[in-house]
Structures are given as C-alpha cells and as structure tokens.
Design goal:
Helices cover about 40% and strands about 10% of the residues. The chain is mainly alpha-helical. A three-stranded mixed beta sheet has the order 2-1-3. Strand 1 (about 25) and strand 2 (about 35) form a beta hairpin.
C-alpha cells in the first residue's frame, strides 16, 4: 500500500545511511525540519547544489546544513524523502516512453507503483516538489503516473478524471 510512514529522522536502516554519516536539515514551507543523511538529501540536485561538495569539508565541522525548501509542504517533503531513502542505494530503472500500458505496475517496480498510488492532490504536489527539488527519477515516475491515468481514455473521460470543465464551444 502507498501509506509508507515517513522516517523523518533519517535512520531508515543500513541501506539508506551514508558512509560519512553526515546529516542535513531540510526545512519545509511551514518551517518543519527533516534531518536526513546528506547522501539521501543529495538525490535532489537543488540540495546537492545548496550543500556543496561536503566531502571536501573538514570532518571536524559538526555544524549542520539547513536547506530551506520554501515551495514544498511538510507532508509532501516527508513523502519525497521516503522516495529518496528507498532509492538512494537502489536507483530506479528508466521508465520507457511512451508508456506501453496504462497499468503502471507493469512498467515500474511494485514499490514505485504503490508509492504513486495516492490522491490526485498529493500526486500533483509530488510533481511540483520533484520539479522544484530537481529529482528527475521522481519527476519521471509521477509524470508517468499521470500519463497512465490518461492513456487510452477519451477526452471526456480525461476531463472527468481530472475535474476539467469543458469550456470548448464549437
């Protein structure tokens, strides 16, 4: 199921811990801080740019980096971090485009398919967060979910799915 509990302290197990053990705090739009391993956070190109190359810093520097993510809501950031923790040492396979089927479970891993099995509002928030944070694999996955929701449907079915008003007058 897609109700994966966020591990906001960054201790998601051996597979998601960085070798350096360095942490970074990602701060949501509401000001809530999520402390995660730097390696996990740096799946985001935005975070990687903002934190710089930490390997060259003095190891005695215990000061934590804080990265404000002013466009990302806390519940969305928690969900994004679930994705990053899962894929930090397990990179997702590229998604074939165009989609071969509307069944996303046949295209991506079972975990990824369950991950994007969320309400539309959360799905669109994840797309915005992935784009803002520059996490290409997550952006590809969430966009593929939307594409799978559209594939094989009539324009009227698409309007109904996404609550789009038909304002076209011939």
């Amino acid at each position: 199921m897609a109700d994966v509990k966020p591990d906001i302290k960054g201790d998601a197990g051996d597979d998601a811990t960085s070798s350096s053990g360095r942490k970074v705090k990602l701060v949501s739009m509401e000001g809530e801080a999520f402390e995660v391993d730097l390696e996990v956070a740096q799946m985001s190109e935005l975070v990687k740019t903002m934190t710089g190359d930490e390997d060259e810093d003095d190891e005695d520097d215990e000061e934590e980096n804080e990265v404000p993510l002013v466009n990302v809501k806390k519940h969305v950031l928690a969900k994004v971090l679930d994705y990053c923790k899962h894929h930090v040492h397990n990179p997702p396979k590229d998604i074939q485009k165009p989609l071969k089927t509307a069944n996303l479970a046949e295209i991506v891993s079972a975990w990824d398919a369950a991950y994007v099995n969320v309400q539309q509002e959360m799905l669109f928030d994840l797309i915005l967060a992935a784009n803002y944070m520059d996490i290409k694999p997550l952006l590809d996955l969430t966009c593929a979910k939307v594409a799978s929701m559209i594939k094989g449907k009539t324009p009227e079915e698409i309007r109904k799915t996404f609550n789009i008003e038909n304002d076209f007058t011939p």
